[in-house]
Amino acid sequence: MDVDEPAGAPTLNITRTLGVNIPSTSRVSDVMSSFRPTKLFSRDDIKEGKERPHVLSIDFDDPGDLCMTSESDETIQIYNVKEGRHDKSLLSKKYGVKLAKFTHTASSIIYASTKQNDAIRYLATHDNSFIRYFEGHEAAVTSLSLHPGSDNFISCSLDNTVRLWNMGTKQWSAKLLLNNPTLAAWDPSGSSFAIACPASASLLLYDHRKVEKGPFSTFDVLKARGPAEPEVAFRGYTQLEFSNDGKHILLGSRGGGHFLLDAFDGNLKAYLRKPAGGTKRSASGEAEPGTLESSGDCCFSPDGRYVLSGSKKDLLVWDTLSVTGSSKVLEPAYVLEEKREAAVVSYNPRYNMIATADQEVMFWLPDPHA
């Protein structure tokens, strides 16, 4: 079964080489303040008079060499990071596409459907063919989270289920019935995972080997919300992510700030205040007809020290080592200037390089002269 082939799809005509000005071994703390918008990718295959599509998700492969977006015009775009060029465009007009993720093999990906049914699709990009469908969800998928070291992944859905999958078989390996589970995230060891349930203002933590025994810990977001209004604890979640050092959990919010939680006891470490508020995207699982859903407007840096967030303009950066005081409110350490909205944000796992997007994709690199 082939993905819809673009008939004579034009290239992006990118000729300038992006390059890597800062070695991948540079400490993040040495370059964070010097990141600048460096390479803009603007789709030139959009017909005149047609609205540019919106980027729904961004992901990098394990080596950090490829960047992939899923877009609202039912396409998947793949970019070569080191050469700063567009590599490939894949169409999924029949099923739609969102939440596209690289597997641990860069030539295969998984993504959620937006049309026909709510299956998750496993695609080989080298020959544009489907390897497998993962069927079972009866409503829209809101989150896909790939295990950090194996071919397992978690999906959350508006059908109030969380399902665990092994890519070697089309049948789910475990199913959890929960109230409003919208986001999932693996801890860096892959031994446990967290599920965000905004309707109950809670994060549920499970041992991957003992899922059937229920959560081994439950974090109360309402209790840990800090200075945020109570209603923010019950809706508006945009991201769930563990830091790579395993110490913190980032819970993104559409409200006036994001929540940085202790990964061991769920207590609030800091409320990451957004001075100008968030982006226009709806929270995960809360998109109304005609609106766009967030797939992650904030993320950790690979060293776990910094949190980056998009906003209506500019890229916000918080230093988690900064002292917050009794209020637990942490202001951005850096505001990286950019006139375009950064609705989706991702930090390359191997290189000091960031990708942001709304209707266009921007690559950010440290300025060696800053």
CATH topology: Methylamine Dehydrogenase, Chain H
- The overall pLDDT average reads 91
Please give the number of β-strands.
29
Global Rg:
19 Å
How would you write the strand order of the largest sheet?
Answer: 18-19-20-21-25
Q: Distance N terminus to C terminus?
A: 50 Å
List descriptors.
1% helix; single chain; 370 residues
Report what the structure shows.
The chain has 370 residues and is an all-beta fold. The chain has a single domain (28-366), classed as YVTN repeat-like/Quinoprotein amine dehydrogenase (Methylamine Dehydrogenase, Chain H), CATH 2.130.10. The chain contains 1 helix and 29 strands. It has one helix at 28-31, and strands at residues 35-41, 55-60, 66-71, 75-80, 85-91, 98-102, 108-112, 120-124, 129-134, 141-146, 152-157, 161-166, 174-177, 183-186, 192-197, 202-207, 217-220, 237-242, 248-253, 257-262, 268-273, 298-300, 306-310, 315-319, 329-330, 334-336, 344-347, 354-357, 361-366. A 5-stranded mixed β-sheet has the order 18-19-20-21-25, with no helix packed on it. Strands 1-29-28-27 form a 4-stranded antiparallel β-sheet, with no helix packed on it. It is globular and about 55 Å long. The protein starts with 27 loop residues before the first helix and ends with a strand. It comes from Immersiella caudata.
